[in-house]
Amino acid sequence: MNPTIVVWRSSQTGRCEPNLFTAICPYCATATGPLEFREFMTVSNWFRWRCPLCGWWYERHDRFPADSPIVSTATEACLVTLDVDSPSLAIVELGTHLKRNYSDLFALSPRRFEQLVCDVFRRNGHEVILTQQTRDGGVDIIVTKDRQTGGFSIVECKRYAKTRTIGVGAVRMLLGTAIDWGAQTAYLVTSTNFSGIALEKADQLRERGYMIELMAASDLCLMLQVYNTALPTLDKLTDDARREIAEHNLQDRSR
Ligand SMILES: [Zn+2]
Question: Distance between CA 42 and CA 34 in Å, rounded?
């Protein structure tokens, strides 16, 4: 059985107290204030509470139809358990989880691994396109603008089992593909590690001007640090962090 992740999802709820102006988080009992509201006292009220500690939120929308009672509807966050390879999981949720649970990465399908690597590259400043799945030896990810060189690069992803290392054959294949595509840099990203001969070969190729970049598990682990959505506990929140959270709330509202 695959490992699982617990995440917040929205669900309809019947809890709609009409004069509720503060909320207590039902998951961790933290008091939350009405962080956001709009159209207050006109045709409708809209409130959103978010627990600063665990991420729970509750939204209520009151409408005031002419000559009829207030209509209140509410939605709240509830915790659901998903398979780590579930397509219902946002890549940011997956990345945040894998940052601390790297070995769960081995439960991902090769395609999901490609999607993750693509997102990691994008968040690390590259402009990327995830290609369609093919069986003809095409590349997995095209980098239209490489962060380092500003040029065109390709990325091959290999989600190998924990015990398997990448041999020199994969490096030779990558070189062939890079030449074929006219790529300035070619990246090979793996969930595991490279054999000594594969690393030597990449060094030799670099000395001869071929930009081959091998990224092993430790490199990927470092790159996963771009997923930084987890909140620190309340007592550790600095003023800067509080400001940052407030800004995130504002951004969420504008989406
Ligand atoms: Zn909470």
Answer: 18
Instruction: Tell me the per-residue pLDDT of 101-123, one tens digit each, with 9 for 90 and over.
Output: 999 999 999 999 999 999 999 99
Tokens representing 98 are 């894998």
For ion ligand 1, residues whose CB falls within 5 Å: 25, 27-28, 30, 51, 53-54, 56
Å from CA of 32 to ligand 1 middle: 9
Question: 102-226 belongs to which CATH class?
Answer: alpha beta
Q: Where are the domains of the chain?
A: 9-80, 102-226
| Percentage above 70 pLDDT, the chain | 79
User: Model pTM?
Assistant: 0.77
Ligand 1 centroid – CA 51 distance (Å): 5
| Contact of 184 with 146, CB cutoff 8 Å | yes
CA–centroid distance, residue 211 to ligand 1 (Å)? 48
Chain segment 65-90, per-residue pLDDT in tens: 888 888 888 888 888 899 999 988 88
Taken as a whole, the chain contains a residue count of: 255
